[in-house]
């Protein structure tokens, strides 16, 4: 809860106003909750977020992006996690990867006329009070049915020695140190050049296992069976794993991913200490953790020791993919949510990933209220705890399908009150001073006032939390990026506010006391 006092700054009242001003009062506290959704161009059961299809003109792409962000903000979200690296490609200009075919239909072909989709997305998200996190698939190299022929600058052509064909998949071998370094450089390139709020990776480390049908002769009869396809990393295992003294190939594979995650966190912090690092692993670390949980073993199948990353503090927020209904098999949703928070010695944020699009899966579809029930479960489980609620929807398009069916349901209940992103005090706990707010009356006496906002001290400010009180006494909340410093009072959510309260939010999410003014 944000602490509040009366801090008057530059109070300007008009003599002979048509109504006496109400006394200045502290605004209501704004709850903290991470409300985000993944947005990707990959088609999935009828959903495709942005762009809706490849080959749109830049004007059409920008228009779609603005509409998507408008709807996200109106629906009560405060963050969008945008897919920018899908399979060794990029939805932004970089010498480290070719342009994605999801933009222009042909990999390596830039938008014409040229523009930077990621820079545009960041600016438009921030203008709507939304965080924008850049989402990467680290080691998936190609999606042949979707991305077509690889460009000359694609990793499959520049470094074919790193590439492993695995069943239907094409992969960058994480066991190759130079490959890990290049993948890491692509993520750091975005951290350095863009004002994104976070770097986000999902569970594409080593590939999920595929199987093949094998025919053998047993006692003179042909017997068919299914067996797992081994990941073809014999060369890197011999060259690096054995040479480094490993005797267990699985342990070496986990060490490769651990090294990547550790370096990602440390190097992002070296570039921008307040930039967030988020990871979304499979929801089950190992079967039996906690007792009674069964399912895929991500520790031994995709070599993701996600419990270790949390224990080491190599991330700022964890989004375990808890893609089960509340109360379903083994009550995995609630049991695993509690378990992940119990193995979190550094008190990082744990915010479940929700399988929101499952509401539309035909005969197996969840009821509409399942997502609302999950959100309420997350909130209820954190009452009386220092853990702050949050969640991420897979995927954004699912909220707005069927004439915004889910978004409207959430807005009427779970999202009826605006929330702001929680703080990350381990990245810096300094409390900024209340902002300095200057009110200037414009030329026409009956026109709006102009508000100019400045930091109250040297603490770096990321956002202005602006709350306006209307004639009816109701408060409206908006977020504005701190790079913007001047606003007309009638552009802050209330047409003719009696009072404006401005709170500084630091780069790590820590809030100041508010400054109250009467425009």
Compact description:
This protein is an alpha/beta fold and 519 residues long. Helix content is 27%, strand content 20%.
Distance between the termini: 26 Å
Helix content: 25-40%
CATH class of the largest domain: Alpha Beta
Strand order within the widest beta sheet: 12-11-10-7-3-2-1-14-13
CATH architecture of the largest domain: Alpha-Beta Barrel
Shape: globular
Question: In words, what does this structure look like?
Answer:
With 519 residues, this protein is of the alpha/beta class. The chain has two domains: 34-207 and 254-422, TIM Barrel; 427-517, Immunoglobulins (Immunoglobulin-like), CATH 2.60.40.10. The chain contains 13 helices and 21 strands. The strands form five sheets. A nine-stranded parallel β-sheet has the order 12-11-10-7-3-2-1-14-13. Strands 18-17-20-21 form a four-stranded antiparallel β-sheet, with no helix packed on it. Helix 1 links the parallel strand 1 (34-39) and strand 2. Helix 1 (58-74) runs parallel beside helix 3 (117-127), helix 6 (177-193) runs parallel beside helix 8 and helix 11 (332-342) runs parallel beside helix 12 (369-381). The radius of gyration is 25 Å and the shape is globular. The two termini are 26 Å apart. The model is unreliable at 1-18 (pLDDT under 50).
């Amino acid at each position: 809860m944000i602490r509040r006092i009366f801090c008057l700054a530059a109070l300007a009242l008009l003599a002979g106003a048509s109504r006496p001003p109400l006394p200045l009062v502290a605004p209501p506290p704004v709850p903290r909750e991470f409300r985000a959704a993944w947005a990707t161009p990959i088609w999935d059961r009828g959903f495709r977020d942005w762009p809706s299809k490849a080959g749109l003109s830049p004007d059409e792409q920008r228009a779609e992006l603005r509409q998507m962000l408008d709807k996200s903000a109106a629906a009560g979200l405060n963050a969008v996690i945008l897919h920018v690296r899908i399979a060794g490609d990029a939805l932004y200009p970089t010498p480290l990867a070719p342009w994605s075919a999801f933009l222009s239909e042909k990999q390596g072909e830039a938008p014409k006329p040229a523009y930077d989709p990621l820079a545009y997305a960041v600016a438009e998200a921030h203008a709507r009070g939304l965080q924008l996190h850049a989402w990467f698939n680290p080691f998936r190299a190609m999606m042949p049915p979707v991305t077509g022929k690889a460009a000359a600058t694609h990793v499959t052509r520049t470094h074919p020695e790193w590439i492993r064909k695995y069943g239907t998949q094409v992969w960058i071998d994480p066991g190759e140190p130079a490959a890990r370094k290049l993948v890491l450089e692509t993520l750091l390139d975005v951290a350095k050049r863009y004002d994104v709020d976070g770097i986000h990776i999902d569970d594409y480390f080593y590939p999920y296992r595929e199987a093949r049908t094998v025919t053998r002769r047993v006692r003179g009869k042909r017997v068919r069976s299914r067996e797992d396809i081994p990941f073809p990393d014999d060369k890197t295992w011999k060259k690096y794993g054995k040479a480094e003294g490993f005797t267990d190939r699985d342990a070496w594979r986990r060490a490769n991913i651990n090294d990547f995650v550790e370096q990602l966190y440390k190097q992002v912090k070296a570039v921008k200490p307040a930039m967030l690092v988020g990871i979304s692993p499979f929801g089950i670390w190992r079967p039996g953790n906690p007792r009674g949980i069964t399912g895929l073993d991500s520790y031994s199948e995709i070599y993701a020791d996600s419990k270790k990353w949390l224990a080491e503090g190599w991330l700022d927020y964890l989004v375990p993919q808890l893609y089960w209904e509340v109360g379903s098999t083994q009550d995995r949703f609630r049991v695993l949510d509690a378990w992940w928070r119990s193995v979190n010695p550094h008190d990082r944020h744990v915010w479940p990933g929700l399988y929101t699009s499952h509401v539309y899966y035909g005969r197996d579809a969840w009821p509409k209220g399942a997502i609302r029930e999950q959100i309420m479960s997350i909130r209820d489980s954190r009452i009386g705890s220092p853990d702050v609620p949050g969640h991420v929807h897979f995927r954004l398009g699912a909220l707005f399908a069927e004439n915004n069916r889910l978004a409207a349901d959430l807005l009427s209940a779970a999202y009826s009150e605006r929330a702001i992103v929680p703080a990350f005090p381990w990245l810096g706990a300094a409390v900024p001073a209340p902002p300095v707010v200057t009110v200037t009356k414009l030329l026409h006496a009956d026109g709006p006032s102009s508000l100019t906002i400045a930091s109250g001290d040297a603490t770096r400010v990321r956002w202005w939390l602006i709350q306006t009180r209307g004639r009816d006494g109701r408060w409206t909340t908006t977020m504005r990026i701190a790079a913007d410093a001047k606003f007309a009072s009638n552009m802050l959510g209330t047409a003719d506010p009696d009072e404006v309260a401005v709170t500084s939010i630091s780069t790590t999410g820590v809030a100041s006391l508010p400054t109250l003014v009467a425009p």
